[in-house]
Specification:
Elements (H helix, E strand, L loop, with lengths): L3 H4 L2 E3 L7 H7 L7 H6 L3 H12 L13 H13 L3 E13 L3 E14 L9 E7 L5 E3 L3 E3 L6 H21 L6 E7 L7 H13 L3 E7 L11 E5 L5 H14 L3 E3 L14 H6 L4 E6 L18 H19 L17 E3 L6 E8 L5 E6 L5 E7 L4 E8 L6 E9 L3 E8 L1
Parallel strand pairs: 4-7, 4-8, 8-11, 9-10
Antiparallel strand pairs: 1-16, 2-3, 3-7, 5-6, 9-11, 12-13, 13-16, 14-15, 14-17, 17-18
This protein binds zinc ion (ZN).
């Protein structure tokens, strides 16, 4: 464990002086707003994830070894974006129409971005299935060796990963926990999502909304449309999702009629609905011609469209989980607010600590769950202090820097790169 001496190598006290140099970095924080975040969503970055997933050759859950390596890849991707992620393994046996009897483990991926200043104890879940399937049905059904599943459903997984990237690069947090889920065994009958939804129901989890993306990259013409499949307990959410989609993307949302809503039961969101949770399911309007074929490859997808689907998802997260504005929105220093620069930081950062009269101050660095990693007291130094911090010993992630005085407490997020 680091202690403060390691981290705060030296303190520079610049009493009552705010010099020109200080001014420069104090105001260097980025001004974050939703539009600028949405503009960072990148088609190439989505293509990269789809290609990586396609390169597994097959993600058919019942092949030898199952999707263990796929799940490990996704854990790495999310961890690299500072999201605490684990593989949740479950076991299942049965008989599948395509390849017969099975008895094996399945691999869900679960990442958690904890809330800051949580508004309640519910969470928002963004999910997509990681498995794929391909087969021919001729005289008898036969599985194909390659199941690239680029549209179905590397596209949905790529959306989730892209949002994690945007969160990481901007140090975003939300006012509700955001759970990033990739489900195994969807193509076999919603195995991963049924397992997770049931487990969450049993454990009393509260889910404000489950955002499902399944087949979200096939858009062959300029008339961009997207189905928003809905569930009877959350019809209002689907219509609000349509408003969000219209406001922030170039996609025309389609909330289907009851008879057109048939696919609602054919993807992971149905498992959550079945367990009593609210969900909305985004899907391309024109179903890909390569559905469940071994030519469902990255080349057939429309990545500009997929980027817009990701924008819809991030706007929905903002709507239902509430982006926290603590980082970056404050571009002008007020009298009793600490600031940190640069932020994000790679190793050293300056902390501007205004200490009120007749007050001591305590500067702490905690992780997102509030565990104190470093603590430092500043005694009776009324005025403005610059503390230089060496954060090189901390792993990449998001931390909270808190300055507590006798008069007020101020908390700022630090993103460690
Ligand atoms: Zn699918």
């Amino acid at each position: 464990m680091n202690n403060l001496k390691d981290i705060i190598k030296r303190s520079i006290f610049v009493l009552y002086i705010i010099c020109g140099i200080g001014e420069g970095f104090l105001h260097a924080q980025n001004d974050i707003n939703l539009e600028s975040l949405l503009s960072q969503i990148n088609a190439d970055s989505l293509l990269r994830t789809v290609t990586d997933l396609q390169n597994f050759g097959s993600r058919y859950a019942l092949r030898d070894g199952g999707n263990q390596q796929v799940s490990e890849y996704l854990v790495r991707r999310l961890q690299n974006y500072g999201i605490t992620t684990e593989v949740d393994i479950f076991h299942k046996s049965g008989d599948f129409w395509l390849t017969g009897a099975y008895d094996q483990p399945f691999y869900n991926v679960k990442g958690v971005l904890p809330a800051v200043n949580a508004i309640d104890d519910s969470l928002v879940l963004i999910g997509a299935h990681l498995d794929a399937i391909s087969y021919v049905i001729d005289v008898y059904p036969e599985p194909l060796e390659n199941a690239p599943g680029a549209d179905d459903n590397a596209s949905g997984v790529a959306v989730m990963i892209e949002i994690a990237r945007i969160c990481h690069e901007n140090g975003l947090c939300f006012h509700r926990d955001v759970h990033f889920m990739a489900f195994d065994g969807e193509e076999l009958g919603l195995f991963g999502s049924c397992y997770d939804a049931q487990k969450r129901y049993d454990e009393g989890d509260k889910i404000a909304l489950m955002l499902n993306n399944d087949m979200v990259s096939y858009q062959p013409d300029d008339n961009w449309r997207m189905m928003l499949h809905w569930y009877p307990n959350a019809q209002d959410i689907a219509s609000h999702a349509a408003d969000i989609c219209t406001q922030y993307t170039n996609i025309t949302p389609v909330v289907p009629s009851v008879s057109e809503n048939i696919n609602a039961q054919n993807s992971d969101s149905y498992a959550y609905y079945h367990s009593g949770f609210k969900a909305v399911f985004a899907m391309e309007y024109t179903i890909s011609l390569s559905y469940h074929k071994d030519y469902d490859v990255a080349d057939s997808n429309n990545y500009a469209y997929l980027a817009d689907v990701a924008r819809y998802n991030l706007a929905m997260l903002n709507e239902y989980a509430g982006l926290d504005n603590a980082l970056g929105v404050e571009t002008h220093q007020t009298e009793n607010q600490m600031s940190i620069s640069p932020n994000p930081v790679s190793d050293r950062a300056m902390v501007w600590c205004p200490i009120p009269e007749n007050s001591t101050a305590v500067l702490t660095i905690t992780n997102m769950t509030g565990h104190v990693l470093l603590q430092h007291k500043i005694f009776g130094q009324t005025g403005v202090h610059y503390e230089e911090m060496d954060l090189s010993g901390l792993p990449p992630g998001i931390y909270l820097c808190q300055l507590r005085t006798n008069v007020w407490t101020n908390t700022v997020k630090i993103v460690k790169l």
